[in-house]
Write a structure and sequence with these properties.
- The chain is an alpha/beta fold and 292 residues long.
- The protein has a domain of 203 residues: 3-Layer(aba) Sandwich (Rossmann fold), CATH 3.40.50.
- It has eleven helices and eleven strands.
- Strand 10, helix 9 and strand 11 form a beta-alpha-beta unit.
- The protein is globular and about 50 Å long.
- The two termini are 27 Å apart.
Length: 292
């Protein structure tokens, strides 16, 4: 196969994932995906330097990024988690099995990967979960924190504009957002291009705001929190800096989960929820230390 391959993975409910594979064949295979409302091309500053050393399987969650829109029916946590083993089987069928298959996921895709790994032991040889907004259950001290964060983010997603004259318009909006001030130069435009698709002379969000809001509001899978103690593969949580004044719920939940279930954990100093875009070198180094 060529240096960069494109795979179209048709899932059992008819949805399609547009998958790209970069890097040397026969190397450790890293599966990479993104957070809610985002797309993996927007994380290029994080994963691109790995393309010479690892085989990268880059994919967007259904109804995000490069994928054709499939509708609201399958846009839920359970179905998104069910996509992972189907994707893994399709990639192995097309490329052959890799010596190691490692999941490296952020936020939405990280929570879904943990759920998928619990349901499908052997799905990944190891997991690296970047700042996942883990759903602490009712009665847990952290439960009010994640509920408040989910509702806050759902309200924000519901209000965000869905159509833009050009990607540069959305990039300017990202760059002016206080919570995104730590992003590396150029990444606001990377992300804007990644999350938009051209339609009738303008650009629209690939993931419609109502679907993005729905994912935030329904991040409450029963049993997932307790399941973190039974994950069937080595797992590292890479969290944002909990000491920052602007530290948000996912960072605190990551630390709490790692302590409660004795999971591998590292926090990247001076980062927020978008740590891979803010300090990509430190994030890659954390993954490489874990893999070694």
């Amino acid at each position: 196969m060529t240096r960069a391959d494109a795979l179209e993975v048709r899932l059992s409910d008819g949805a399609v994932l547009a998958v790209r594979v970069l890097g040397p064949r026969g190397a450790t295979r890293l599966y990479l995906s993104h957070g809610n409302g985002l797309a993996i091309d927007g994380y290029r500053v994080f994963w691109e330097p790995w393309a010479e050393r690892f085989e990268l399987v880059l994919f967007d969650v259904r109804n995000h990024g490069r994928n054709p829109f499939h509708g609201a029916a399958g846009h839920n946590w359970k179905r998104i988690a069910a996509d992972y083993p189907e994707l893994r089987a399709a990639v192995d069928a097309a490329l052959g099995e890799a010596p190691l298959s490692i999941g490296v996921f952020h936020s939405l895709s990280a929570v879904a990967a943990a759920s998928a790994a619990l349901r499908s032991p052997g799905l990944f040889d190891a997991l690296v979960l970047f700042d996942p907004p883990l759903p602490a259950p009712p009665g847990h001290p952290a439960h009010p924190d994640i509920v408040a964060n989910n509702e806050k983010m759902a309200r924000w997603a519901s209000r965000r504009p869905a159509r833009f004259a050009a990607p540069e318009e959305l990039a300017s909006s990202f760059a002016a957002t206080r919570s995104l001030q730590r992003w590396r130069p150029g990444t606001h435009l990377d992300m804007a291009r990644a999350v938009l698709r051209e339609e009738a002379g303008s650009f629209v969000l690939a993931c419609p705001p109502p679907l993005e809001a729905h994912i935030y509001r329904t991040n409450d899978e029963p049993g997932l929190w307790e399941g973190l103690g039974r994950l069937p593969c080595p797992t590292l949580i890479v969290g944002a800096d909990t000491t920052l004044p602007e530290a948000d719920s996912p960072a605190r939940l990551c630390k709490a989960a790692a302590e409660e279930f004795r999971l591998g954990y590292v926090a990247i100093p001076e980062t927020t929820h978008f740590l891979q875009i803010e300090r990509p070198e430190e994030c890659r180094a954390a993954v490489e230390r874990f893999l070694s």
